[in-house]
Every structure is written in C-alpha cells, then in structure tokens.
Amino acid sequence: MLRFKGNGVYGAYAIGKASVFKRNGKKVCRRRITSAESEIKRLENAKKQAISQLNSIYEKALHEIGEANAQIFEIHMMMVEDEDYNESILNIIKTQLVNAEYAVAVTGENFAEMFSLMDDSYMQARATDVKDISNRIIACLVNKNDKKIDFNEKIIICADDLAPSETVSLNKDQVIAFVTEQGTGNSHTAILARNMNIPAVVNVGEGFLETVKDADLLIIDGYNGDIIINPDKKTIEEYELKQKRDIEKKELLQKLKGKENITLDGKRINVFANIGSVDNIGAVLLNDAGGIGLFRSEFLYLEKDRFPTEDEQFYAYKKVLESMGAKKVIIRTLDIGADKQIDYFNMDKEENPALGLRAIRICLSNPDIFKTQLRALYRASVYGNLGIMFPMITSENELKTVLSICDEVKKDLKKLNIKYSHKIEIGIMIETPASAIISDKLAPLVDFFSVGTNDLTQYTLACDRQNPKLAPFCDIHNEAIFRLIRYSAESAHKYGKWIGICGELAADTTLTEEFLKMGIDELSVSPSYILKLRDTIRNIDLNSNKSN
Amino acid sequence: MREFEYTIKDELGIHARPAGLLVKKAKEYESEIIIKKGEKSANATKLIAIMGLCVKCNDTVKITVNGPDEEKAEKELKEFLSESF
Predict the structure, then answer these.
(1) Segment (H or E) for A329
(2) Which residues, other chains included, contact A507 with Cβ-Cβ below 8 Å and sequence gap of 6+?
(3) Sign of torsion over alpha carbons A437, A439, A442, A446
(4) Do B49 and A84 count as a contact with CB atoms less than 8 A apart?
C-alpha cells in the first residue's frame, strides 16, 4: 500500500484499476528537405485534417459538456489557423528548408513558452493548448490517427498531463477517474473533469508514473487529493463506505437542490444548521442549509488563553455573516459553565455546575464580558442577516435586564457614530422548564424562541446528561418535554413570534411530524443531517390523520 | 482612422474564449483593427497575439480602426466590447 498526494479537482471517490497512459513519445526529428513548396502542401493537408478532428471533438464536447466548455476546441481551431503561428511555421520551413513536423514543434514550443512566461496563472495554463494543437498537427503530418483510448473495463487513467482533447476523447463509461503528475486546478483538463463529474487528482508530482503499473488497484479521493496504490482490504472497505455515502448524499442533494422545504400540505419550514466554528461554514453551504440556526460563540473563548478582544470577535462574526449573505445567522451569546469550563474565567468550583453560574448568568454577573460580545455582534450586524440569542433564561426580569444591556450597547454605538443593523432579531433559548412555563410572558419581549432540547431534557427530567447510568431514567421522548415545547410554540404564535428547535431532538426524523404539528417553524441541526431532514419534511402531510 | 479606449470589466480579462469571439468579430470588417495595451499591440484578427497582450480586468486598452468601414466597425466594436468584456 503506497500513498501519493496531489490536488483534488472534483470531489468524489473512485476505486478501480490503473491504466497508465503513455503518449507515443516519439521525438520529432529535424530533417532537411529539398522543396519547401511540397512541404507546405503537406502542412496544409495536415492542418485540414487537424481541423476536421477538432470539429468532431467539438461536436462530441458540445453534446457531452455544453457549449461554454466545448468552445475551447473552437479556440483550438482558431489557433491552428492563427496568422502569427502559421507565419512562424512557414518561415522555419522556407528559411531553414526543414520538415514541417520540426517547424511545427519549434513554433509550438516557442508560443507555449510565451504563454508560460506570462504573469498570470490562467494565461500560463494556455501553454498546454498551444502544445496540444501542435502535437495534433504533428500527428497528422506523420499520418498517425487521433489517439483514442479504448478499454473494456472501468479504469483510472494515470498520465503525466492530459491535453484537453485527450480528456474529451475518454470514454466516460469506462473511465472513472484520472490522475496526472502535472496540471493545475486552472487547466482545461481540470475544468472539463469537473464538468464530466469524474474525480480527478492533478499535480501529483514526479515519481507517481514510475511507481504505478497497469492494473494496480487505486483509490482516488478527489476531495483531498489522496491516491492509494494497492490498498489493503480494510482501506478498500473504508473507502467503499465513503463512496457509498458520498453518492447517496449527492443524489439527495441533487433531488433537493433549490427546492423549498414545504410539507405536502404547503407549510414552509426553515431548516438551518448548528455550527461551533467559522471553519464549519463550508459544510453548511455544501449541504444547502437555509441559514445558521445556532452559532455557538464559545469557540472564540475556548481557543484562547485570555478573553477575546472586541475586534477579534467582530471579525469572526463578520466573516460568518458575509459568508452566508442574506441568509439568517443566529449567534448565541457566550454559553460556558457546567460541562464547558475555561481557566481564565477563574470560576469558583461549584457543587452542582449544571445548576450553577453558567451562560447568561456569567454574563449578567460580569457585564463587561457581555457588553464586549454584544458590541462586536452589533458592529458585525451590518454585514448580513443577524439574529442574537440568549441562553439559560429563567425569568422575565432576567430577560428585561439583558434587553436593557442591549439598549445601552446600542446607545453607546450611536454616540460613537458606529453603524449597526436595525433588523437584528432577538431571541432566547427555551432550555429551562421555567422559560417554557412562562413562555407566554417572554414571547412579547423577543422575536423568536429556540428550544435547546438537551438542557431542557436534563432539567425537566432531573437527569445529568453526562451520567450514563441514568439512561434508563432519561427518556428523551418523555411527554413532559413535549408539553413544554408545545406550550412554548403556542405562546410564541400567540404573539406572532416564531419558534425553532436547535437541540439534538431536531435531527430525530421520527419526531419531525410531531414537531411540525405543534407548529414549530424552524429546525436547526448539524450540517450532515440537513438533507435527510429536508427530505423528511417534504414528505409530511400535516392534514393527514396519522397518529403521532 | 478612429481611436477609442475601453476598460476591461470581465474578471478574467481577455481570456481564451472571449478572445476567440473578438477575432471572429474583427474579421467581419475590412478595416484594420489594432489593440494596444501599454507599448504592446496586436492585430485583432490574430488570436495568439491578442492573448499575448495578457489583458486583465481593469486594464485599459486603446483600439484603433483604420479602413473603409471604420465608422461602422468602431460603433459595433464598442457595443461588442461592453457586452463581452
């Protein structure tokens, strides 16, 4: 088992046999000729043949990968006819009295060099195009037919570099991936590969072709550029599973992409993502989430050995908001304590940390820490669609204090002429039984509720969620929890507010129908659950009499 | 002879595909069309030469049109450029 690494060009997996692509690497010889005229005639014929080959490749590409991508072969035809290019070839033939193959090869190299010397990576990559057409003309001159790769079983093409025309000539049904020693993510080969949905790894570097042999078993990971030659059984099984999941996910995504999350009877549900770090945004976008329903801001505090500054926080929030564009991003203010402890907060040791100084209680005890975070949030709010959510609320007064601190922060910013959005939605977590029971008093004060089912379960059932021995007593489907959620939903809707669920129960698709019947408007789950949840919602009919 | 300037707005500058379109367009006229970027210039009917100018986004190029149909060519080229680049 040997590993190589390059740049993944198209995210997918392939497992199959290697086919090492060897070009007829005959060197072009310089040969003296007697008549420039007859040599030029040979050249003209070869060019005609090259153009007609390019024409049929263009037609094939047009059919397979669309006009925009096929146009490169039109460009190739124009290059074959390019005045400067031809003038150079004719000049070499006439003045040096040499064979056309040599004249084309020299011209091709000169023009390719001109491109590769440009200070622009896109233009540098065009050197391949010039080489490609030159090789084609030379092949026509020596009367070689257009190289077609023809195979009977599924294979992974391994080559030093594949020219665009070679990539298109591949029979897609047989080729399941390709690996090239050279090439960049900018080369046409890479662009075409993406369009053909073939996983590919480019720029593997020298040494790969010397190692890999025909019929070697290869694993290609187009996501991170890994190549494994002759993997062991365990690795094969691991990748077969990865491949299966990848295909299922893509099929689901294909099915759901751009579709709204509407139940069969027409109720629209927001499906958002829970994340804990800026790095997770990629996964949010990849899974087509409608927004971020819970952004845990703790990471900003956990990754440091001192309090993060206002600016540090501002840039992190700004980045998330900008990445999500117009989509909603709900950031939960600091929620540490209980099972999440941070040394520099210098918290006293508590007998019952879960019932101790945590979350909003820390913020209200240390208004400076709280205000720093709020200022950063308000400043960042102009860069997107922000919602702010407060954890562990248990009383109306507590919430009123929180809101008055927000007002102070806004007033300070106004004084300093610092802009903030006036459309920020303010919400609270419903994660204590108290907040659910008085949800009718809290609803008028906020824009939304988000139910944190993990804490709500632990507090309602009086079960420490970290004690595995309590499992028999900690039924997450206990009726008490559902009554609290149902009542909170009624309270929210009574005042025209919306309610979501961001705890683990939100991802339990056996409960989705029940939640929707309660009137839950939004479900926020880990990115990997999003597609399955969306699929579930689209198959629910709230008018059906099926019992819960 | 007519002369005008144009600033490229396409993110990739005059890259392969639009350069090809430009060549096709330039061949429609009898007039000679020259594109100038700084000290380098290229005939608009020559694909590789145009690509060789390495015109990038926000670069300003000077275009001269010289010949019997220069008035028409100038007008239509201006439209073409603002649509394609």
Answers:
(1) strand A328-332
(2) A523, A525, A526, A529, A533
(3) positive
(4) yes
Q: What is the pLDDT of residues A203-243, one digit of tens each?
A: 998 889 888 888 889 999 998 899 999 999 999 999 999 99
Residues 6-25 of A with CB under 8 A from B: none
Look at residue A403 in the predicted model and tell me its pLDDT: 98
A7/A205 Cα distance (integer angstroms)? 10
Report which of A247, A147, A126, A138 is spatially closest to residue A189, judged by C-alpha positions: A126
Q: Is B23 in the A-facing interface, judged by CB distances under 8 Å? A: yes
Distance of CA A409 to the CA centre of its chain: 36
CA distance A81 to chain B (A): 9
Instruction: Please give the ipTM for the structure prediction.
Output: 0.86
In the prediction, which pLDDT does A341 show? 76
Q: Detail the DSSP E strand segments found in A409-464.
A: 425-430, 448-451
Residues of B in contact with A75 (CB under 8 A): 16-17, 19-20, 47
- A319-323, A374-378, A452-456, B67-71: range with highest mean pLDDT: A374-378
Q: Above 70 in pLDDT, residue A152?
A: no
Higher pLDDT, A65 or A390: A390
Number of domains, chain B: 1
Say which of B23, B48, B56 has its CB closest to residue A120. Answer: B56
Range of B51's domain? 2-84
Sign (positive or negative) of CA dihedral A336, A341, A347, A353:
positive
The chain-wide mean pLDDT, for chain A, equals 88
The pLDDT tens digits of the residues spanning A272-327 come to 999 988 878 888 887 889 999 999 998 888 888 899 999 999 999 999 999 999 99
pLDDT of residue A164: 66
> Alpha-carbon distance A409 to A368, whole Å?
11
Our measurement of the distance from residue A200's CA atom to the centroid of its chain's CA atoms, rounded to an integer in Å, reads 17
Structural domains present in chain A:
1-19+151-233 (3.50.30.10), 24-141 (1.10.274.10), 268-538 (3.20.20.60)
Q: Which of A74, A136, A77 is closest to A105 using CA atoms?
A: A136
Element (DSSP H or E) covering residue A69? helix A67-80
Give residues with Cβ within 8 angstroms of A312, minimum separation 6.
Answer: A300
Please say whether the dihedral angle defined by the alpha carbons of residues A157, A161, A165 and A166, taken in this order, is positive or negative. Answer: negative
Q: Is B24 a catalytic residue?
A: no
For residue B77, the domain's CATH number is 3.30.1340.10
The CB-side HSE value for B57 (13 A sphere, CA atoms) comes to: 5
Q: Which residues of A353-368 are buried (b: 16+ CB within 10 A; e: fewer)?
A: eeeebbbbbbbeeeee
The verdict on whether A188 is a catalytic residue reads yes
